[in-house]
Amino acid sequence: MQIHLDRSLIDKNIKFIAHDLGLNINHQIPSEPYLKYDEKGLSFIKDPNNPREYIHIDYLKGRAGWRLNRSNHESNLKKALGKNQKKLHIFDATGGLLLDTMIFLSLGHKVTAIEQSKILFYLVKDALNRAESKLSFIKNLDFRFGNSIDLYKTIERPIDIIYLDPMYPILKKNQKKSLEIETIRFLLKEEKIEGNDQDMIKKFLEYDHKKIILKRPLKSEIYSNINYQVKGKTTRFDIYL
Ligand SMILES: C[S@@+](CC[C@H](N)C(=O)[O-])C[C@H]1O[C@@H](n2cnc3c(N)ncnc32)[C@H](O)[C@@H]1O
After folding, report:
1. CB distance 180 to ligand 1 below 6 Å
2. How far does CA 222 lie from the centroid of its chain?
3. Which of 115, 178, 213 should be mutated for ligand 1, with most atoms under 8 A from CB?
4. Which atom of ligand 1 sits closest to the CA of residue 163?
5. Would the pLDDT of 1 be above 60?
6. Mind telling me which InterPro entries this protein's record contains (predicted)?
7. What residue numbers bound the domain in which 84 lies?
8. What predicted TM-score, i.e. pTM, was given to this entire model?
9. What CATH number is associated with residue 81?
10. pLDDT digits 0-9 by tens, 142-179
11. Total of domains in the chain
12. How far apart are CA 235 and CA 16, in angstroms?
């Protein structure tokens, strides 16, 4: 894989990212999957011939911006967090695009989020850098690259909630979101990251915890003894206390 960028845009930051990812910077458009850095920021292009297969995160507009603007309507997520008005410290063990974490932050909570894909980590970091002057709550985020199963032990306590949103199969109804998930799967394969979601859930249930929120497709099997559920139209939150 390579990073494609316009000669005029070379800066220290993109050189650092290329070095850390072990990628070459190329000024020609590659014919294989690549990272692109342009005036919009960093993007991942999965298929240069299919403009729909890409990841570019923008917390200020589009789907993420829209969801953030109406975070008060996230009644199920709020219910899952609990009625208590207290500011929580949430450990998001499956960071992904940080869409859920951004909702937690916008509701006034503090979040430590972990992502295991280094490419996704840099895509998110770039989006956070572009948004932080407009979204002041980003200051309450500690975002790290790594495996959350290992990092959990090193995080400052107290942690009020562990949030788990493992990947699940494509839903035909939601192709746009699924394409992103498929692209994340592709990145994990490219980075040779293996992991079993069931094992991860099991590990966190064994760790000391006050409360675990596990996001699942509405009709999926219950993993183990839950305390209660918050159900939405297509997803549900299983709560373990
Ligand atoms: C379905 S996505 C999460 C989406 C996220 N909730 C959001 O709102 O954008 C799952 C993510 O968890 C990450 N992941 C899975 N297991 C992990 C682990 N043990 N440590 C860190 N990240 C992990 C995957 O790499 C993937 O990006």
Report:
1. no
2. 23
3. 115
4. 6
5. yes
6. 16SrRNA_methylTrfase_J, SAM-dependent_MTases_sf
7. 64-174+192-240
8. 0.94
9. 3.40.50.150
10. 999 999 999 999 999 999 999 999 987 655 555 555 77
11. 1
12. 39
